[in-house]
Structures are given as structure tokens and as C-alpha cells.
Amino acid sequence: MVTRGDARREQILYAAMVVFADHGYHRASLAGIAEHVGISQAGLLHHFPTKPRLLTAVLEARDRLDREWLAELDPDGRTGPRLLVNLLRLVDRNRRLGGLVQIYTALAGESVTDDHPARAWFTDRYGRVTASVEAGLLAGADALRPDVDCALLAREVVAVMDGLQLQWLLRPDEVDMVAAFRDYATRLIRSTALDPEPLVALLASAVPVPLPAHAG
Amino acid sequence: MVTRGDARREQILYAAMVVFADHGYHRASLAGIAEHVGISQAGLLHHFPTKPRLLTAVLEARDRLDREWLAELDPDGRTGPRLLVNLLRLVDRNRRLGGLVQIYTALAGESVTDDHPARAWFTDRYGRVTASVEAGLLAGADALRPDVDCALLAREVVAVMDGLQLQWLLRPDEVDMVAAFRDYATRLIRSTALDPEPLVALLASAVPVPLPAHAG
DNA sequence: GTCTATAGGGTGATAGAC
DNA sequence: GTCTATCACCCTATAGAC
């Protein structure tokens, strides 16, 4: 539950999300974030005492958002190859959200450096995300060919989503992540599911309007 | 050709590669790089007048290294699905190189932010890399099923390599990128090549000693 | 809860001696 | 080519008034 007194905090969190996405963590300044909110830098520090703690709060807020999206995307707890249909919808959602997704790519890349304050969080998050995808695959494993390695496959699926996102952020108008992921997921289903064609059809119609590859 | 007078420059380039990889671009300091070389910060600036120009030089040096590796990996200009065997070798090489690969992930993530000095370079590089993979696939397209979209597939392959690398950098001892990429490439060949099994066998023996997934 | 003022640290780049 | 010294800047965080 969110009390009324947290309104300013949420303003700051949102502004910090935007500024971290635009400049990364180390280049973002507290003064810049405070300016977005319309307060002074010292005023900001009243709500979040240090910069790393602001970052932590931002990442936790993103976590909550992610959980809401996943719950909304996957109300029936769909498993096995059908999971890919939900992930395709997630890719499409990320595309429409634009800059707010950038924070992951910008911070994840930055975080691989030695003692980055977000490193533990990302290490953790990848563990949870891949484990969750793996669990989804395992739960529907009876619809998959028996030689599928769900652990390796989970890492692969997450890797494809991240890698496409990086290419898309660098060239949004030339890279169609939805088309690329649909192509990937279709081939993946055909090579791992026991009864692929119904799922392939679902995938083809999962995201309402497939965009042309080079839309202006 | 490299003249003897460039020795110091190369020392600096190497040190910069290491420090950028460890800390990213913005957190790396010229003084820190200079210390690795054993000279002063002002001494460094005699060879590279500004920090962005040092970064550019580092990226260009990595480019040259990459080209040498690719030439060595692919002496016969192998194309089509066989390209994947060479890429698996590249993944293995990256694993063994450790920190020197990190510079790509660290800088690529950082570069998606608005006006990062490496952004244009990465945008360019992804264009070249995906185009080169696509060209390789197209050149061997007669060994592929006719419905394969080489452009989308090229982006996908690059995405898998990048995404796995990020996961591996965050948890080097838990993520086996070679195994994951081999698994991916095997499935990909089976679902796209007209005569997959010889290539699958090649893939299975391509990297001498497959590591156990959770080696200590 | 928000402000101004400032301490205290680090940075990229320049000037000029050797 | 390399150094020391220094400038000018930006940053996080604190102190204390309102």
C-alpha cells in the first residue's frame, strides 16, 4: 500500500528512472534528477540519503513493475513452449515502452564492471529470471521433446531478448525486435515442441499488428 | 606497419583496454590508465590529446584484433550453416580471453545512452557484424531451407552471443557460454540446414574439451 | 520538507620547465 | 616525451536556516 506521503518519493523514482536510462548511473547527477522533479539536489537527498540507495530503490521499483506485467501477461501460469507466446508479448511491450526499458540495458552493461553498486542486483536478477523461465519450461516439459535441456534453453531465451534489445536501442528504426523474436520463437517451437503447429499459429497472431521491417 | 616510435602508444592502448574493461568508460580515469603504463597523466595526454580520442583508438585497435581472429578462424571463408562452427570457436576464444572481452559488454551497454562517444562506433559495428554474418549465411543459402530469413537470423545469432556474454560476465562460474551456444547452434542447424547431421557432428567436436556445466 | 551554502574529492585538460 | 603544477569544472554529501 502506498501512503500519500510517498508521492514525492515516487516522483523522484520516476525521474531517476528516466535520467539513469538516458545517461547511465555514473554520468547521471543527483542535481539533474532533482531538476526533473523541480526541487533542489539537497531536497532530493532528504528522501534518498545517498546515490547508491536511490539506484537500489529504482531497481526495486522496476522489479515491482515487472512482476505486475508478468502477472498480467501470464494470468494462467502458462508453461512449456507456450511460454514463448507470452515472452513475445513482453518483447512487444518493451518496444512500446521505449526509454524505460533502456535502463536495463544501460545499467546491466555498466554493472559488469568490478564494484558497480548494481552488480549484485543484476547477478541476482538474471538468476531469478532464468530460473523462472526454466521452471516454466520444465513445468510443460511433457509437451517438449525429451532431449531438450531446459536450463540451457532458459539462458538462451533470455540472451536472445537482451541481445535484440541492445541492437534495437542502438538502431530503433532498423531493428525490428518483435519480428526477430517471433522468427526465433517459431523456429524454437518447431524444433522443441512435440506438437508445434498450433503454437506457431498462436505466435503468428500473438502481437496484433506485425510492423513492417523498415517503418518510418 | 608499426614503427618503433609507436611502442608507447601501444602500451597505452593496452592499458586503456584493461581499465575501460574494468571500470567502463566514464569511471575510468586517465590517471589510472597512465599509472598502469608507468607514466603521468599529462604524459599520456601527449600521445592521445583527449579522453574520447583515446577511447576511439582503443575501439579501433580491438577492431583490428577482431579482424585478425576472424581471418584466422575462417581461413577458407566458410559460409552458410558452417559459419556457426566458426562462431562457436569464437565464443570459446572469448571465454578464454576473459576480461578483454568485457570491454565490449561494458562499453556497449554504456553506449546506448544519449551522447556517448562510443555510440556511433557501436551502431556502426553492429551494422557491420550482422551484415557480415548475413552475407555468410546468404553465400551458403543453398544449404539452407528456402524459408530461412538470413537477415533476421543474423541479428538473432549476434544477439545470442551478446546476451550469453552478459550472463557469463556476471556469473562466470555458473554460466557456460560454450555449452549454451553449442546447444543453440545445434538446434539452429537442425531446423535450418538441409543436411544437418554432418554439421552437428562437427559442432560437437569443434571445441576440444567441453567443460562441465558447473566446474569449480 | 525544502532551501542555500559549502566542504571535500576527483576529473580532464593546459602551461611551461627539463 | 615526460614531468610538475595548476586551472576550472562537476560531483556527492553535510550543515544549518527557514
UniProtKB/TrEMBL annotation, chains A, B:
<keyword id="KW-0805">Transcription regulation</keyword>
<keyword id="KW-0238">DNA-binding</keyword>
<keyword id="KW-0804">Transcription</keyword>
<dbReference type="InterPro" id="IPR009057">
    <property type="entry name" value="Homeodomain-like_sf"/>
</dbReference>
<keyword id="KW-0678">Repressor</keyword>
<feature type="domain" description="HTH tetR-type">
    <location>
        <begin position="6"/>
        <end position="66"/>
    </location>
</feature>
<dbReference type="GO" id="GO:0003677">
    <property type="term" value="F:DNA binding"/>
</dbReference>
<dbReference type="InterPro" id="IPR001647">
    <property type="entry name" value="HTH_TetR"/>
</dbReference>
<dbReference type="InterPro" id="IPR039538">
    <property type="entry name" value="BetI_C"/>
</dbReference>
<dbReference type="Pfam" id="PF00440">
    <property type="entry name" value="TetR_N"/>
</dbReference>
<dbReference type="Pfam" id="PF13977">
    <property type="entry name" value="TetR_C_6"/>
</dbReference>
<feature type="DNA-binding region" description="H-T-H motif">
    <location>
        <begin position="29"/>
        <end position="48"/>
    </location>
</feature>
<protein>
    <submittedName>
        <fullName>TetR/AcrR family transcriptional regulator</fullName>
    </submittedName>
</protein>
<dbReference type="InterPro" id="IPR036271">
    <property type="entry name" value="Tet_transcr_reg_TetR-rel_C_sf"/>
</dbReference>
